[in-house]
Amino acid sequence: MAEDLIRMVAIKKSYGKVHALRGVDFTVRRGEIVGLLGDNGAGKSTLIKVLSGAVAATSGDIYVDGEKAIIRNTTDAINYSIETIYQDSALVTQLSIARNLFLGREPLRGPRFFNRLDQPMMDQVASDLLKEVGITKDIPTTTPIGSLSGGERQAVAIARAMHFDSDLIILDEPTNNLGVAETQGVLQFVRNARDSGHSCIFIAHNIHHVFQVVDRIVVLRRGTVAANDIDPKKTSIEEVERIITGMEH
Question: What global pTM score does this model have?
Answer without folding.
Answer: 0.82
